[in-house]
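Try this one yourself first.
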């Protein structure tokens, strides 16, 4: 009755099913791994954003690489903005996905070290980004700022190429080591995205807080893959029984047709 399972068509179908089942199971575990990673990152972000602000030099020093647990931590710093060495970061977008610049201003601390402060987003002056834009001035004199600590930007992490030959006072990536060479000063590792004080006239536009990754989507994908894996043998059995039934019915009908002339 099930001898047809040895046919070429059914052997190939069975082999494909046997390959699909472990593949789908592995894909489900991969999605669960992604779920765990995203959940852990979301927790790190939540913990960092919820922590009380601390002086910036408690978390970073010149040459320090900001760690995952330090990223997004709220820090405070007191110093004087050095607008003479201010630069803008090209090809940055705001919440409306409008391309412009981020304003990066060195803050000279009371001990002489320098902290890079991303003061926020400004639009480009016209369609060309080759001209240095008009940048709203920061507070003058001694100022205390609060911001989220961020690691140095890299091409590998951001996907942004660190282009050479840019217009004067324009950069592609925020990198404390490169800025230390440019400024000839001790620059704290990483930089901060300013959150306070808020700028006058709402410009520059402060960089928003990081959003949470959708970890639940990976969990749903994992369940989906495992349901697919369970469905493969079920579908194979249903199809095999259906073909066996169809073959039995065809054989019975053929036997009836052959029996009728004999009876006559």
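Now uncover the answer:
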């Amino acid at each position: 009755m099930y001898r047809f399972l040895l046919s070429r068509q059914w052997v190939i179908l069975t082999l494909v099913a046997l390959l699909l089942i472990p593949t789908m199971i592995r894909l489900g575990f991969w999605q669960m791994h992604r779920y765990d990673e995203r959940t852990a990152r979301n927790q790190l972000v939540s913990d960092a954003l919820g922590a009380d602000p601390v002086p910036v030099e408690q978390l970073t020093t010149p040459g320090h690489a900001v760690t995952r647990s330090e990223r997004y931590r709220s820090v405070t710093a007191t110093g004087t903005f050095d607008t003479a060495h201010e630069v803008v970061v090209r090809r940055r977008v705001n919440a409306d996905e409008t391309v412009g610049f981020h304003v990066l201003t060195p803050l000279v601390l009371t001990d002489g070290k320098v902290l890079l402060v991303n003061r926020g987003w400004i639009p480009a002056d016209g369609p060309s980004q080759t001209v240095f834009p008009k940048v709203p001035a920061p507070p003058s004199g001694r100022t205390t700022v609060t911001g989220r600590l961020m690691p140095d930007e890299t091409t590998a992490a951001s996907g942004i190429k660190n282009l050479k030959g840019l217009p004067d006072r324009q950069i592609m990536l925020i990198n404390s080591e490169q800025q230390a060479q440019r400024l000839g000063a001790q620059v704290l590792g990483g930089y901060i995205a300013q959150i306070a004080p808020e700028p006058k006239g709402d410009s520059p536009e402060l960089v928003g807080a990081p959003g949470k990754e959708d970890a639940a989507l990976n969990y749903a994908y994992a369940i989906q893959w495992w349901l697919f894996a369970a469905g493969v043998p079920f579908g194979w059995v249903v199809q095999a029984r259906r073909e066996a039934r169809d073959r039995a019915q065809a054989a019975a009908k053929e036997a009836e047709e052959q029996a009728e002339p004999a009876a006559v």
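Discussion: The chain has a mean pLDDT of 90. The helical segments are 8-50, 155-158, 176-183, 215-263.
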